[in-house]
Amino acid sequence: MKRIVSPALAVLLALALVPAPAFVPPAEAANESFDCLMEPHVVVSVGAAVEGLLEAVNVDRGDLVAKGEVIATLESSAERAAVALAAARAQIESATKSSQARFDFGVRRWVRTDELFKQNLIPLRELDEAETQKVLAEIGVLEAKENRTLAHLELERAKAALALKTIRSPFDGVVVERLLSPGELVEQAPILKIAQIDPLRVEVILPVSMLGKVTLGTQAQVMPDAPVTKEPLAARVKIVDRVADAASGTFGVRLEVPNPSYRLPAGLRCTVRFLD
Q1: Maximum CA pair distance of the chain?
Q2: What is the mean predicted confidence (pLDDT) over 22-47?
Q3: Is the Cβ–Cβ distance between 38 and 235 less than 8 Å?
Q4: Strand ranges inside 139-267, DSSP E
Q5: Which of 18-32, 124-138, 173-187 has the highest mean pLDDT?
Q6: Does an H or E element contain 163, and which?
Q7: Which DSSP state fits 209?
Q8: For position 190, what pLDDT does the model report?
Q9: Contacts of 129 (CB under 8 A, 6+ apart)
């Protein structure tokens, strides 16, 4: 007796005879391309080392700044006056010259008195007085030199106090945000937020199957999602996390992309492909 097989059952039997495709890891199926994010190398909130009234802010959001450039100043009239006073004191030479003149005179007087004493023309008391005045004059010269050294140190301290009223950029970068305006009191709040975007950091999360395949110095190609460039960007691995996330089965990797002309903005999504 011939068994009749339904069409649906025939299709299922045919699919069962077809060999199942081999499992392909997601990374291999995607040609080892992973989603990433391009971030600034570092972002800092720049403030003042001392409290004071904000006198001027020389930059605004989006401005490029160079390392050491003056970006803001606090009111510093008292500090400038202190520098001028300390500089005037450091330049005074009258005390040193007068002390040196008294010492030279004391030496000459002691020499003459010593000669007269050797000829038994004066008593020992006058020789002792001449020698004492010579020693005191020598101490006066030393004191004048020490006072002038202290005056120079006072000048350096006044200059340092004035420098605290001047805020400079810690590195080459771009102003992200201006938080305070002239006339506001600066206490502990930052004045500006500056980002260093050369080089750019590229953060990527990889599956644990990539452990050992990506190491320090591994070269990669980064392609931003936004149409800022048509060519892949050369990157190099700088950090590989040594602790994986057990819950997600992933670990983090950081790459660096040179950006000397600042043509690439930070904050872009991207894809990365490792070459080595």
Answers
A1: 163
A2: 73
A3: no
A4: 166-168, 173-178, 185-186, 192-207, 219-224, 233-240, 250-257
A5: 173-187
A6: helix 124-163
A7: G
A8: 93
A9: none
Give the pLDDT band (50/70/90) at residue 78: very high
What is 44-75+165-192's CATH topology? OB fold (Dihydrolipoamide Acetyltransferase, E2P) (2.40.50)
Least confident of 116-125, 147-156, 199-208, 266-275: 116-125
Which stretch of DSSP H or E encloses residue 46?
Answer: strand 33-46
Superfamily of domain 26-41+197-274: Efflux pump adaptor protein, beta barrel domain (2.40.30.170)
Please state, in angstroms and rounded to a whole number, the distance separating the CA atoms of residues 231 and 223. Answer: 7
The full set of domain ranges for the chain reads 26-41+197-274, 44-75+165-192, 77-163
Q: What is the pLDDT of residues 126-146, one digit of tens each?
A: 888 888 888 888 888 898 888
For 225, phi and psi rounded to 5 degrees? Answer: -70, -40
- Which residue is listed with tokens 């069962």? 16
